[in-house]
């Protein structure tokens, strides 16, 4: 159940969504999530990290020795946040300037992923679909040095703003320009590694991603 008392939106609640389809789409598009938790000595921390959804779970990974991983593995409750900014909203009044965005917040306790090697495949495929079959897979030493944690998608909410600015009725008569400046993210042309051996072309799975 995604909707709980602490995921209920109180500020502009009409923008709130709790369905899995919306949440899954937000998570699948996001590369980075911000993981917030309280350390064992009571200090707040927020760490940006690569995320990937695997069915009903959100995966994060890091060094087995990192402070974040140790705290989360020990049972520290976490809050994970992602945001996509889709546009700058310019209003006729300074007060009503805004942004069009899609965001999600999840709560819960993370556990070690049941299959670490498969989880790392999920991460690799999240970055570039089709990549896993073209690279060397992690060896035992690399698997030992890496931890993958899993957060069940059981408590969370999404918040979405779209469309033009909202204005005070009398401000529509002002001579100030109003509207939306769209913001998009695009992938550029691949840049070869300086140490790439000659004769190795950009593979189709990479080329297809940059063509989107």
Automatic annotation (TrEMBL):
Region (Disordered) residue spans: 188-212
Top-rank lineage group of the source organism: Bacteria
InterPro entries noted in UniProt: Pyridox_Oxase-rel, Split_barrel_FMN-bd
Protein name: Nitroimidazol reductase NimA-like FMN-containing flavoprotein (Pyridoxamine 5'-phosphate oxidase superfamily)
Organism from which the protein derives: Solirubrobacter pauli
Classification of source organism: Bacteria, Bacillati, Actinomycetota, Thermoleophilia, Solirubrobacterales
């Amino acid at each position: 159940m995604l909707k709980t008392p602490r995921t209920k939106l109180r500020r502009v609640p009409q923008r709130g969504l709790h369905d899995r389809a919306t949440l899954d789409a937000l998570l699948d598009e996001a590369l980075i999530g911000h993981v917030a938790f309280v350390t064992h000595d009571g200090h707040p921390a927020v760490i940006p990290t690569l995320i990937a959804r695997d069915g009903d779970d959100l995966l994060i990974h890091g060094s087995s020795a990192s402070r974040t991983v140790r705290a989360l593995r020990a049972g520290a409750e976490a809050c994970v946040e992602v945001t996509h900014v889709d546009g700058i909203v310019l209003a006729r009044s300074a007060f009503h300037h805004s942004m069009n965005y899609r965001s999600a917040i999840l709560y819960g306790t993370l556990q070690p992923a049941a299959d670490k090697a498969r989880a790392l495949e999920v991460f690799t495929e999240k970055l570039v679909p089709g990549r896993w079959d073209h690279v060397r897979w992690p060896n035992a030493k690399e698997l030992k040095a890496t931890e993958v944690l899993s957060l069940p998608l059981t408590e969370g909410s999404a918040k979405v703003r779209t469309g033009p600015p909202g204005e005070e009725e009398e401000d529509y008569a002002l001579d100030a320009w109003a509207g939306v400046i769209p913001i998009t993210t695009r992938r550029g042309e691949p840049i070869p590694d300086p140490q790439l051996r000659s004769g190795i072309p950009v593979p189709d799975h990479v080329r297809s991603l940059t063509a989107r």
